[in-house]
Amino acid sequence: MTVPDINEERLWDRLIQLAEIDATPGGGVDRQALTDGEAEAWRLVIGWAAEAGLEASADRAANLFLTLPGRDRTLPPLMIGSHLDTQPTGGRFDGAFGVLAALEVATVIAGQGAAPERDLVVVAWMNEEGSRFAPGMMGSNVFAGLRPLEEIRAVVDTKGISAGAEIDRLLSAFPDLPVRDSGFALHAYVEPHIEQHVLLEQAGKAVGIVTAIQGKKTWEIVIAGEKGHAGTLAMNRRRDAVAAFSRISTALYTCVGGYDDVVKFTIGRVGVEPNAPSVVADAVRFRIDLRHPEMTALEACGELVQEICAREAAPCKVKVIPLVSTAPTPFDERLRDMLAAAAAARAIPAMPVLSYAGHDALQMAGVCPSAMIFIPCRDGISHSETEWAEPAHVAAGARVLLDVAAGIESFVR
Ligand SMILES: [Zn+2]
User: Fold this and answer.
1) What is the pTM of this model?
2) Ligand 1 ion local residues (Cβ < 5 A)
3) pLDDT per position as a tens digit, 133-153
4) Taking Cα atoms as reference points, which of 145, 305, 318 lies closest to residue 218?
């Protein structure tokens, strides 16, 4: 199949137009999941898709699908896309770039006249960001069978409104939209996204072929001591939870934070009880966020967390409560080779990069061969109104996706 080029101006104009929905005064976007703003974004994108002859549908988790029908509709589709929701102080490109680059690719392939072999599905996943309903990546988790729909529907926002009620409200705003079963079989999944890091920018590359998403473990640590009078209780009789926290956190930052030069270790939330200036604290609760691209190192650091907490807590007691544990997820090597070859064929400077953040592709990697295309974002800044991607990089990422989508029949599972 010979493939014409993407329309750079159309793609860029659509990015800017989409960013007008729920635009913030500072030039960003605040479009949280399952809001009226997201419905408006759906309407805009469905309209563009219809012009290109794509069929819109959704599933019960309010994932949006825009399908270019293939010649053999029994074949599992190729799925491409990302998400339309943002953080409260979000930018114009996180998520939107992936959906609109995918829509541009489907539009160009549709415009060729001959249908592709298999369906090409552009997806906009529900609630990737997890800022209104936490945790995020709800739509892809349901699609991948990792979380039941009922569990997702029960999650409430800060106003007590459930995700389920908002899913129903969004779907009822589109009465003509067919609602299909989630979790259908796929040939492959490719997600374009901004890098949210500086590696591509520093290397002067237009495109990153993502090797893997790093693994993550989180814990809540509860240190239990004993309350006392700050003026009268002798130092050697104290069971001071803040003193224990100080020893534990210092050892954690030294041993786990210094494990190697790729580990990421963070204590991002600390609570002291009773948190009174003249009372020896009887409790400290804190959260650990640990990330590493290699499973063995992630496990070794996890054991260090346990050991250090147990060793440094005395005379207080400590509870180490594991919360999240996500293994490092490598992307499909053959798809990565195809992406690299597509970039090379168009003389687009590309390199392999690790994803330090989670994405919907993490869930999809368990469903079908999956991959991601990164483009640089200025100074690595995202989840910010100042988030910016260069038009040339937006176009480069879409071109690599186009060539892989058009050549997907050469990809044999
Ligand atoms: Zn994103």
Assistant:
1) 0.88
2) 94-95
3) 988 999 999 999 999 999 999
4) 305
